[in-house]
Write a structure and sequence with these properties.
Helix content is 36%, strand content 14%. It is of the alpha+beta class. Helix 3 links the parallel strand 1 and strand 2.
Amino acid sequence: MSAPSRTQLEFLQSIDTPTVCNLVEIVAPERRGFGYTVRHLHCPFPELPPIVGFAKTVTFKAKDAVPLGEVGYMQKRLDYLDYVAGSPQPGIMVMEDLD
C-alpha cells in the first residue's frame, strides 16, 4: 500500500472521525464491529483543530514494578519515541494506560 498523498490527508482532515468510520463500514463491510473502542477517549486539547496521521500505539502500566530494571525501562521509552519519530509520518502518539 502506498502512502496517502497530501491531498488525501487534507481531505481526511476535513471530515470527522464518525464519518470516516461509517465510510469504512461501507467500503469494507467485513470490518463492521472491529476497531472501535468501548471506552471514552479524552482529548487533552479540544480547542485544537482535527489532525490526520498514523497512530503510533503503546500500552503501559505504572503501578507494577518494571521487570526490565531502570535501564531497560528507559530503553523501552526511547524505543517508543524512535518509533513515533519514524516512518510513516505524520505520527500521532496513542497511549493506553492499563491501570
